Amino acid sequence: MGKRVGILGGMGPKATADLLDKIIDLTPAKKDQDHIHIIVDNNPKIPDRTGYIMGEGENPIGALLETAVRLRNNGVDFIIIPCNTAHYFYDKLVEAVEIPFVNMIEEVGKYILDKFEKCKVGLLATMGTYEGKVYEKYFNPLGIDVVVPTDEVKDMILDLIYRVKAGEREFKIEELSYMLKGFKDEKVNVVILGCTELPLIFNPLKDDFSEFNFISSTDILAKKTVELAK
């Protein structure tokens, strides 16, 4: 019998749906009963993670804990969080809620180490993920160097992410190329889509950026979830 998975979602809703869709597609199933039992708490009322980390908003830890406890009380075997920035609060969640969690950032690091060994990687993410050193915390011990863009590009990425949250789905190639230029100049060709909204933008356009190896945190979390649940 497989394990019951809890998704602590809503950050944002479309990214949560994207993860669920990927888990379903990756599950080796021939009928409904072969699929994984998943309980999704799609809670968009969790306060903005980046806002809090940047000193401009309400602390989301209370809402994160409430959502995790609801999932635990519904009998899930482990919890996954399809939000990179929310992993800033990961240790507090694990400490407070007595149930296993999957650390998406850690899994991305393991994947990179296995596929590319120790290397430099570019990071596209929210201001909160940059400011909170969410990736550096887990990557530095692995010998993976994180390269971040300029402040101008960071602002552009954040704007892009919130446009996805607002429902926008089509973006100009020129706009995305400009954001990646700094990585290209530094000869960094492994780029982490370190916000779960970003695969919704870049996955359909991978052929236009063939010089880069894009690492989707959503894809890696989905694969790990199927592995653990089955």
From TrEMBL:
Keyword Secreted on entry:
no
Q: Does the keyword Isomerase apply?
A: yes
Keywords associated with the record: Isomerase
Alphabetically, the GO molecular function entries are: isomerase activity
Q: Which PROSITE patterns match?
A: ASP_GLU_RACEMASE_1 (PS00923), ASP_GLU_RACEMASE_2 (PS00924)
Q: What is its EC number?
A: 5.1.1.-
Q: What is the top-level taxon of the source organism?
A: Bacteria
Identify the Pfam families for this entry: Asp_Glu_race
PANTHER family linked to this entry: ASPARTATE-GLUTAMATE RACEMASE FAMILY, GLUTAMATE RACEMASE
Q: What is this protein called?
A: Amino acid racemase
Q: Which organism is it from?
A: Clostridium mobile
